[in-house]
Amino acid sequence: MNTSGRVRPGRGAAGGPGQGSRAPAGPPLWTVTFTAAVVVNFLLNLVFYMLMTTTAVYAIGRFGADGTTAGLAASIFVMGALACRLLSTVMLVRVGAMPLFVLGAALSFLFSLLYLAAEPLWVLMLVRFLHGAGFGLAHSAVGSIAQSVLPHARRGEGVGYFGTAATMGTALGPFAGLYAIANAGYSALFLAVATVLAAALAGGLLLRVKAHHPEGTAADGRQPREEPDPTPAAPPLRETLRRILPIGLIAFFQSIAYAGVAAFMDVHTAALGLGALAGSFFLVYASAVILVRLMTGRIVDRHGPATVFYPSAALYAAGLVLVATAPSAPVLYLGAVLLGIGYGSLLPTGQTIAMGLLPRRQSGTAFVWYFLFVDLGFGFGPFLLGALVEGIGTTSMILISCSFVAVAGVLFRTLLPPSVRSGS
């Protein structure tokens, strides 16, 4: 029995285990709005990771910051994003997703121009926080728009494609950021960030309503008032949190571990004597994620989340161990592949679950709350793990990160009802 009283996560009306097919529903997946949302999602995440993997190193080299402070300089961006994700849950309803996106993307672009003049360290942190606030608004809005136009029977597949765009950002961002600072310096990095954000703002202008949207929501994220909707009404805030909190906690602990890798990979590879491989590590990681995400959504749709979650968590932990202890480039790259398959599958699986725990018209709200917990992990991870780096080094820090993956696995087993885990 589905305890949320909702349509099962990731399942179509006619889909079920063993059927091997899904019933067509509504418009095709790749509408203009969804395609534009995927591209914008990639660009926003590209910037996020260009800076996430270089800010700690920048703070250490430019301002002489210690590991804890450098981790805070990286993660304070996420704190700004968190604050505005909370605000966006109200603003999406009151002003709509399109105005919210334009505001967030414009603020992100403007604050990105200030990195060049951000001195001393506290000013850099302020700019990071405000930039994160703009990112939180823009990312919440574009995610809400994307989720609202997904045909329900292909929800897991659509989430997989949308997440693949973010994953490309998680890999190309670190590579581009590290390449920029190694070959052209930080000024070039910050100018590149501003250019990418300008492109995201321009691309977001394609997010318009041009067709009927079967999920009961307009593509700007607002709820239509005239057309009947057979799905249940939106639950109150307390009930929303009650439903989302279990999968949110799972996403939080999953993300802490990867946040430590993303923030300190350059430092870690240097400690291993493999310093030149930090950028290529993320390219290998991204390649693995892209390949697995093309299949993950369909597997979740047809066989349920648990089919993906357990093996992915095991591969994630194994990848962390290999990355932490890698004696050579091949082992480091193998760790990147396992990380990509593992974490790259866990994130969209959790998102599909979250979307299934709220009424269909609340799919955008589910997206916002789910990624709020992901952001919490990315905000808390570098700060906590940066403190560990000071005392025990990056190898031990990454090994300890495996414990967070184990906690996520225990929570998946104990907090989610069997019907949600299996999708039955």
From TrEMBL:
Q: Which UniProt keywords apply?
A: Membrane, Transmembrane, Transmembrane helix
Region (Disordered): which ranges?
Answer: 1-22, 216-235
Q: Which Pfam families match?
A: MFS_1
Query: What residue spans carry the Low complexity bias annotation?
Result: 1-11
Query: Domain Major facilitator superfamily (MFS) profile, which positions?
Result: 33-421
The places in or outside the cell where this protein is found are: Cell membrane
**What is the top-level taxon of the source organism?**
Bacteria
Q: Does the keyword Signal apply?
A: no
A single GO molecular-function term is: transmembrane transporter activity
* TM segment ranges: 29-52, 72-93, 100-118, 124-146, 158-182, 188-207, 244-265, 271-295, 307-326, 332-355, 367-389, 395-416
Record-linked InterPro entries:
MFS, MFS_dom, MFS_Exporter, MFS_trans_sf
Q: State the protein's name.
A: MFS transporter
Q: Which organism is it from?
A: Arthrobacter yangruifuii
